[in-house]
Design brief:
Blueprint: H1 6-15, E1 52-57, E2 66-68, E3 71-78, E4 81-88, E5 94-101, E6 119-121, E7 124-128, E8 133-138, E9 144-149, H2 150-153, E10 168-170, E11 173-180, E12 185-191, E13 197-201, E14 212-216, E15 219-225, E16 229-233, E17 240-245, E18 259-261, E19 264-269, E20 274-280, E21 285-291, E22 303-305, E23 308-314, E24 321-327, E25 332-337, E26 343-348, E27 351-356, E28 360-365, E29 373-378, E30 389-391, E31 394-398, E32 402-407
């Protein structure tokens, strides 16, 4: 049986209320790659793979979907507009659409669409565009409530690939990996109601890692990986609770999210950075080990499973990449699937759903004892970087051309009824 930190569950439920089956933010209801306990997946797939519920074309971008109350939020770019669309999750019907102009053009990578996954909280949706346009929209109508041009407000450069970090909500604050190092605004807290700047912290650039919330030693932390650091921040005031160097200068990125495992925190990156394992103590935080082995992941966040970590070691662009399960305390690899290829993954119903960047979907048993594959299907036909999202047995996968909704649920399981029927 998997171990999910009780303190983390309590914190996330306080921060982002969600119903069973919701996937309201990056990496799911708990922001750690684990689906809600009520998700029930079919034990096997038909010969042709999971049934297709519906599909539709999409614009550019690598942003995965967020889903709440049978409403899926799609964030993509068409021509010179970043577009947020609310779709009925079980049919694909468009409920509302909101557009805003964007002029960003990719330099290191041709992608010019949004990368950060939308965030749903109560009756609002938050999106962070590729050029730093931070918006708060009404969940039922798509009407803009407030917006901030963070690159202008905090003198932020475009970076290698634009913006790629999903904001985090803790209590009444939206915490954002902004990257305004000239203004000590690497991390910024905005008010949820009006988007006011509440505090600024860290003279560092932004990364492509999304922050997570953690609970250590009787208090809440916001865990960030910036361009050059792994930090624990007090969400109330932005005070740095701990800080370690993490990352390298030059053409490198930090893309994976930090992971809490009990009193420990793990971070990983490629480009010669490797993995970091530290103990968060009451008075100080201790670095236990730092090494390129056993995991140096380009941007995939590993999943904690029964105290072990399961994820990808390697890079998408140069390879090879392997799927591994290892014990972070001892650095011992418990099992590995060599030359597996690059992928992102989530866990539901004690099963791993692994979406490879070549468009192959793999289902395997959730286990730290051995790798056991349960199914494999080609679901997309071009390079697939967007994170998958799972809600009520429906899996949402997309590349830069197509969004597909696949049925993975057990017979008799049905999606929640939407409470959103308005459009504009």
């Amino acid at each position: 049986m998997r171990i999910i930190q009780l303190s983390l569950l309590i914190l996330v439920c306080l921060s982002v209320p969600c119903r069973g089956g919701d996937w309201p933010q990056i990496m799911g209801p708990y922001r750690n790659g684990h689906a809600a306990a009520g998700e029930a997946l079919a034990a096997e797939w038909p010969a042709g793979g999971p049934p297709l519920k519906w599909q539709r074309p999409v614009g550019s971008g690598f942003a995965g979907l967020a889903i709440s109350r049978n409403v899926a939020i799609l964030f993509h770019r068409i021509e010179d507009e970043e577009i947020v669309e609310a779709l009925r999750a079980d049919t694909g019907e468009v409920l509302w659409k909101h557009s805003s102009p964007v002029s960003y053009k990719g330099t290191f990578n041709p992608n010019d669409g949004p990368i950060a996954v939308p965030l749903i909280d109560k009756d609002r949706v938050y999106v962070f565009g590729i050029a730093g346009h931070l918006q708060c929209l009404d969940f039922k109508t798509g009407k803009q409530i407030w917006s901030r041009q963070t690159h202008q407000d905090f003198q932020v450069g475009e970076g290698y690939f634009g913006v790629g970090s999903t904001p985090l909500i803790i209590e009444d604050k939206l915490l954002v990996n902004v990257g305004g190092k000239r203004q000590n605004a690497g991390i910024v807290a905005f008010s949820l109601d009006e988007g006011r700047t509440l505090w600024k912290s860290m003279p560092d650039d932004a990364s492509y890692s999304s922050p997570v919330s953690g609970f250590f030693n009787g208090r809440f932390y916001a865990l960030f990986i910036t361009r050059q650091h792994l930090v624990g921040v007090d969400p109330e005031n932005g005070n740095i609770l701990f800080q370690f160097p993490f990352g390298k200068r030059g053409p490198t990125v930090n893309g994976a999210n930090p992971v809490q495992v009990g009193r420990h925190v793990f971070a990983t990156a490629s480009y010669g950075v490797g993995g970091f394992w530290g103990l968060v103590g009451g008075n100080s935080t201790t670095e236990i080990w730092r090494s390129e082995k056993p995991m140096s992941s380009q941007y995939t966040t590993p999943i904690e499973y029964d105290g072990a970590l399961i994820g990808i070691d390697g890079r998408q662009d140069v390879g090879p990449a392997r799927l591994i399960c290892f014990d972070p305390k001892s650095q011992k690899v418990l099992w590995s699937k060599e030359n597996f290829g690059y992928a992102t993954l989530l866990e539901a119903d004690n099963k791993l759903l692994i979406l490879k960047t070549d468009g192959t979907l793999v289902m395997a048993t959730g286990s730290k004892e051995k790798y056991q594959e349960l199914g494999r299907a080609q679901v997309l036909n071009s390079t697939t970087r967007a994170l998958p999202a799972l809600s009520n047995g429906l899996l949402f996968v997309r590349d830069t051309k197509t969004l597909k909704c696949l049925e993975l649920n057990k017979p008799g399981q049905s999606p929640a009824t939407p409470d959103n029927s308005n459009s504009n």
